[in-house]
Amino acid sequence: MYFNLKINAAKDELNLKPDSALVKFFIDTDKLEKNVDEFFLSLNYPLGKVQKKNFMDKKSDEFAYYSQTNEPSVIFVKKIKLDKHFSSDFFRNYFAGLVPSLKKKNLKAVHVVVPLFSEFKNYFENEGQFLQTMLEGIHLGNYTFDHYKSDKETTAELSFFIHYTDQRVLKNRIEVSDKLMSAVFFSRDLVNEPAVTLTPTELAARAKKELAKIGVKVTVFNKAELKKKKMNAILAVGGASDNPPCLITMHYKPNVKTKKKIALVGKGVCYDSGGLSLKPTSSMLEMKADMAGGAAVIGIIKAAAMLKLPIEIIGVVPAVENMVNGSSYKPGDVVIAASGKSIEVKDTDAEGRIVLADALHYASQQKPDEIIDFATLTGACVVALGEIAAGLFTQNDQIADDLLNSGKQTFERLWRMPFWRDYNDMIKSEIADVSNLGPRWGGAITAGKFLEHFVDEKIPWAHIDLAGPAIKHKLNNYTEKYDTGFGVRLMIDYLLSI
Questions:
Q1: Overall pTM surpassing 0.85 (yes/no)
Q2: Which of 100, 168, 182, 469 has its CA 20 to 30 A from that of 439?
Q3: Strand order of the sheet with strand 342-344?
Q4: Which domains does the chain have, with CATH numbers?
C-alpha cells in the first residue's frame, strides 16, 4: 500500500490542520466562476487570474492550488460536467488517481468536501452508492503489489476526512467499504501473486487461513480424494504438474435465517502453459492470472462473511496447473467427468472449461437455489467485448437483469451474450458427449455452452467470462498497474440486492 490509510466521517465545518489537503468539486454551470470566486474568498486565498482563466477553459477540468500557509498546504480543485459522458465511476476513478499522486507531498490529512447528492441523483441508485464510489476510489488508489521489491519505501500515515451532511449514511458506507475493499484486495493479491509461489496447494492454504478467521468452513479435496470422487476432468488437466491439483470448497452459513443458498464456482488455473497445445511466450505472461475467477469467488465469500450477509454461500474452486510432461493429457483424449459425461479433448489450451465441468457438477450436487461461475475462460470474449466488460451467459432473465444492474452500479460491467440452443451443435463430438472446442466463430458462447452440459438443468445458472476486465488494463486509474479483482464488488452488490 502507498499509505497506512484511515478514512473518517468528519463534521460539516472544516477544521484544517497543518500539512493537509483539501479536495473541492465544482459543477460546471453558468455560475461556475462565481462559485469558484466565493470559495477562495471564503478561505481568504487569492486565486491568480491566469489559473482561474485556465480552469474556466473548456479543455481544462482541474488544478492544484498551493497555498503559502500550512492550512491547507494544497487544494485540489476538480470541475464536473454533468452531461451524457458523466458516469457513476467518476469519483471512484478520480480518487484512485489522486491517492498515488500524494505519495511525495508529505501530507498527513486530506479533507474531502462532498458535493450535494441532489445534483447527482440521476446517476446513482441512492445516496449510499454515491458516497461509496468515493470511498472505494480512495481505497483502490492506495493499492499496490510490491511484496517482491527490495527498495520499498516506508509506508506513511494518511487520514481522509469526508465532510458530508448525513453522518449516519456516511459512517455506514465507510464501514461497508472498509470490509468490502479488504476482500477485493485479498482477491487482487492472489491474482497478482506469481505462479511460482501460488501453487494450487498454496491457493487452498491461503483461502483456508483467511476465511477460517471469519467463520467460513473450508475443505480441500486433495488428489487422492479427487480420484475417489471420479473428478477425472480436474485430474486430467492437472496431471502434468509437479504441483498436484485440488478442489477448494468453502461454506459460509450465517447465524440468521437465510434468504437464499447460492453456489459460486471459480476457475482456479494457477498457471496455464496451454499444455501440449503450448501457448507462445507472449501469451503465457499473464497466465498467473488464469485463476482470477477462483480468486473472485474467495474474495466474494470473504466480503459476504465480513458483512454478515443473510445468504448461504457455497464456494467451489478447482485449483490446477496446466503444464507439460509425459503425463500430459492430449488432444484426442476422452475424459470421463465426475457427472459421467464424456469430453473429447480437441485442445489442451481449452482447459478451464474442463476443470469447471467437475466443479459445476459438484456445485449442482449441493442443491443451491442458483449457481454463478466466474472464469477467465476465453480470449474470444476479450475479442468481442475488449477489456471493458465481462460476458454474461445465462438462460435466466431475472438473474441476468439483476447482475446487469449490479454491473452498472459498481462499474464492473457485464454484457449479456446470446446463448441460444443452436450453439450446442457447434460442440458436438462423434466419439464423446461433448467436445471441449468448437469452430473458430462464437468461441466465448460455445465455451459457455460446454459448461451448461455439467449444470443441473433444474438450477438457475449464469456464467461470467471475465477474461478481459480481470487482467490489468488502461481503462481506469485503478486497473492500470495490477490485475483487478473484478467480480467481488459486482457480486456483493448483487447479493445485497437479494
A1: yes
A2: 469
A3: 334-336, 342-344, 434-435
A4: 3-165 (3.40.220.10), 183-497 (3.40.630.10)
